[in-house]
Write a structure and sequence with these properties.
By secondary structure, the protein is α/β, with parallel strands linked by helices. Helices cover 32% and strands 28% of the residues. The strands form three sheets. Strands 1, 4, 9, 10 and 11 form a five-stranded mixed β-sheet that branches. The chain has a five-stranded mixed β-sheet with strand order 5-12-8-6-7. Strand 10 and strand 11 form a beta hairpin. Helix 1 packs across helix 4 and helix 6 packs parallel to helix 8. It is flat and about 60 Å long.
């Protein structure tokens, strides 16, 4: 039996297919970090730590023994609870196309925001250092004038090249900055979004949970996201009215090359 306990839920195969499909649909556009950093896994729920390839000497060892303790980075488990009305699940079994899965949508958004924020800004209590935190390059202020964004992004790309970091480069844009970019055309009507992509030579993604933006080298082993359990729906309990479920994942994140990113502050 899986730890997700899905077989104990009063949900039919049709219901589970609907829930899984809805979760994938809501998560795919919002998981910005996974589009820009190196992703490995999933390695399963029992995978508990990432090997750092380092060791630290054990000071108090038996006489005549030199001992060292391997260093690892524990995975963090993140869970977002939600519930679904049993009446809605029954309607799904009847073929309804407008099943109310609002709480699932909200849970998916919360989990995506938490993951993005951890990767780009850190999650100290969980032992995660973020890309913007760790960057050794001077941050660049975005400002409110969107027509200056190409200048800021070009400056960030030049800074990365200046420290020997090759492209392609990508960019995570926080919701406010992303909206500004989408709504802005430069002189002659050329979309600002396309201009920024040309400068970067790589992806530009909407990143809920990010403040401002981050320009970074894509690929190359600079930023490492290790997935234990990939995003999955599990069962908590139920009553006559509703089934209580959750979205869950486990992951670690580490930075191999702090100089491979530039933060663009809001």
């Amino acid at each position: 039996m899986s730890h997700l306990l899905r077989d104990r839920a009063p949900i039919t195969e049709v219901g589970w297919d609907l829930l899984d499909s809805e979760a994938r649909e809501r998560l795919a556009p919002a998981l910005a970090a996974r589009k820009l950093v190196d992703f490995s896994g999933p390695r399963g729920w029992q995978h508990s730590a990432t090997n750092l390839g380092r060791a630290e000497r054990v000071a108090d060892s038996p006489e005549g023994i030199d001992a060292a303790r391997r260093r690892v980075l524990p995975l963090v488990e993140a869970r977002a609870p939600f519930s679904v009305a049993r009446s809605e699940l029954a309607d799904a079994d009847r073929g309804a196309e407008d099943v109310d899965l609002g709480e699932l949508d909200e849970a998916a958004h919360r989990l995506a925001v938490a993951e993005n924020a951890a990767v780009f800004h850190g999650w100290e209590a969980a032992g995660v250092t973020g890309i913007a935190q760790a960057s050794t390059n001077e941050p660049i202020a975005l400002g409110s004038d969107c027509e200056r964004y190409p200048r800021h992004v070009s400056k960030a790309v030049d800074a990365l090249r200046g420290v020997g970091i090759e492209g392609p480069y990508g960019m995570a844009l926080g919701p406010e900055a992303h909206t500004n970019v989408l709504e802005t055309s430069q002189h002659g009507g050329y979309p600002l979004l396309e201009h920024l992509r040309e400068i970067l030579g790589g992806p530009l993604v909407w990143a809920p949970g990010v403040e401002g933006a981050v320009v970074l080298a894509v690929g190359g082993g600079h930023f490492l996201f290790e997935c234990g359990e990939d995003l999955s729906i599990g069962y908590e309990d139920h009553d006559v009215d509703a089934v209580r479920l959750y979205l869950e994942e486990s992951f670690s994140f580490r930075i191999a090359t702090p100089e491979a990113a530039v933060a663009l502050t809001p």
